[in-house]
Amino acid sequence: MADKMYKLPTPRVGGYSAEFYKFCKDHELRFQRCTGCGAWRHIPRDMCAKCGSFEFEWARSKGRGKVFSWTTAHQPMMAQFAAHIPYSPVIVELDEGVRMVTWLTGVKPEELELAMPVEVVFDDVTPDVSLPKFRRAA
Amino acid sequence: MDTLKDKACIVGVGESAFTRGSGKTELRLMLEASLAAIGDAGLKPHDIDGIVGPPIGSVAEHFAANLGIEDLRFATTVHMGGASPVVSLQAAAMAVASGIATNVLIPLGWNGYSSNPVRGGGARAETGEKPMPEPNPMMNTIGAFYLPYGATVPVQWYAWLATRHKHLYGTPFETMGAIAVNGRANAHLNEKAMMRGRPLTMDDYLAARWVSYPFRLYDCCLETDAACAVVVTSAEQARDLKHPPVYISGVAEGHPYPADDIPARPDPFVIGLSFAAPKAFAMAGVTHKDVDFLEVYDCFTYVVMLQIEAMGFCKRGEIKDFITPELIRLGGELPLNTHGGLLSEAHVWGMNHIVEAARQLRRQCGPRQVKDAEIGLVTGWGDFGDGGLAILRR
Ligand SMILES: [Zn+2]
Fold it and tell me: Terminal CA-to-CA distance of chain A, rounded, Å?
């Protein structure tokens, strides 16, 4: 549910990253996919580094992947995060091959392990912003 | 000119005071270090005709205006974070080897303690200094994709690399601790070291609080108000100056791919140094066995380990067997961070590693002198894993 009191920073977006989060607002996890060669990419860019094409579509991910790595922050480096210590910025590798930084929900830091299967959930943190997060999958 | 090998030399090194609370601007600290380095070379400020400016704080023209350099023939800046100092050596060597400039100054420093935003940014508030904007594609990545999840500082970004490597290869915390304890032991033999006289044992290391898993407190570098500078000139001119020349025998830079996002890398352990190391060793015409000591950029212990693997001193995943306290201590086969490094001397973006390597090769290091040091290796690491490597010889 949208929390009017959400205190954490929201994404600083512009251009392609604004488009990425616009889809998140609709609870769709979409990444750029080159319409020339079919390669997925993230973070978003102008060109496909594989084939040089400028043409792409925002292709919908199935939202399933695995834990690629993580860290667990025990010291807040921004005051807003102090209430969330310890928290774990996790890198998830989607089945489509792209990787992204996220949080897991319902997983304690000490339960994290490489290759843990996860699936996307959307957290409507403000009326305008929904963040993709992940939960443990079967 | 077919290679840069031995075409340029480090002839002057210097530093400001290392403090926590300088009360001075970053430019002032760098000017003090610059004067020390120029004097150490036996030169006068107006002899400088090239400047590789720092990636933060000030630009070359600030230095020229203060030092009275009327004909600045070469000014550039390397934007590679903590890899900038070593890669600036490459830029300076290119400039003097091609005759574009004669004496190139490389200053770098900051109020790393008192202007730290986590601590409130005091010193800049006191001096009214405004940091120069940093043109850096990382910042877009961080703001859009890391910031909402609270991954905003290096200790968190590089922890992603360390966690994956540690869990894939079963590296124990004691390997990380060996690097922290070694740096601290060396700092006791260094009058300038911030941590001189503050012993650190493996038990202390393991008992320290977490900062960001897998990094505990002593895995993390210091924060220091400090500046260092070096002067580079041609091999011909170096022979007539005050100290024995320190030759830049091999130097190279490298960038991970893509440089502006850590998660996207096909192989996260292919870092800047993976590309730079073969080039620098080939240029110098030496092998790993020829290296007498290492000064490796040590923002965090595991970053040292990733660099040593990437340079080929051991194979991927074998760092846990390669690093031992006996190997890396002074008097060991491969002394590491003889000054104490960023972990225990001071955080000067690794410019202090270059200063230390030069002094080791001049044999000026007193109680921490590496016996018969002939060849030293210095690395830089910055901006998500950019790398620089210089192989220096006397
Ligand atoms: Zn393509």
Answer: 25
Q: Where do we find the tokens 């990425």?
A: A20
Mutate to test the interface with B, among A77, A103, A134 (most CBs of B within 10 A): A77
Task: Let me know if domain B8-114+222-393 sits in CATH 3.40.47.10.
Answer: yes
Closest of B369, B387, B370 to residue B379, by C-alpha: B387
Distances (CA, A) of A70 to B158, B181, B251: 10, 25, 33
Distances (CA, A) of B262 to A21, A111, B112, B265: 20, 23, 24, 6
Tell me which chain B residue has its CA closest to the CA of residue A131.
B148
Query: Could you tell me which residues come within 8 angstroms of residue A58 by beta carbon, excluding any fewer than 6 positions away?
Result: A19, A20, A23, A30, A31, A32, A33
Which three-class secondary structure state does DSSP give residue A23? Answer: helix
Q: Does A61 touch chain B (CB under 8 A)?
A: no
What HEC string does A54-86 produce? Answer: CCEEEEECCCEEEEEEECEECCCCCHHHHHHCC
Identify all chain A residues contacting B137, using CB atoms and an 8 Å cutoff.
none
- Indicate whether this complex's ipTM tops 0.90: yes
Please report residues of A whose CB lies closer than 8 A to that of B214: 71
d(CA A20, ligand 1 centre) in Å: 19
What residue has token string 């579509």? A57
Task: Give me the total of CB pairs closer than 8 Å, taking one residue from chain A and one from chain B.
Answer: 108
Q: What is the distance of C-alpha A9 from the center of its chain?
A: 15
Structure token pair of residue A51: 């084939």
**Domain ranges, ordered by start, for chain B:** 8-114+222-393
Q: Answer whether A39 touches B (CB < 8 Å).
A: no
CB atoms within 10 A of CB B382: 26
Q: Tens place of pLDDT for every residue, chain B, 394 residues?
A: 579 999 999 999 999 999 999 999 999 999 999 999 999 999 999 999 999 999 987 889 999 999 999 999 999 999 999 999 999 999 999 999 999 999 999 999 999 998 876 655 544 545 556 555 555 678 889 999 999 999 999 999 999 999 999 999 999 999 999 999 999 999 999 999 999 999 999 999 999 999 999 999 999 999 999 999 999 999 999 999 999 999 999 999 999 999 999 999 999 999 999 999 999 999 999 999 999 999 999 999 999 999 999 999 999 999 999 999 999 999 999 999 999 999 999 999 999 999 999 999 999 999 999 999 999 999 999 999 999 999 999 9
pTM, two decimals, is 0.96
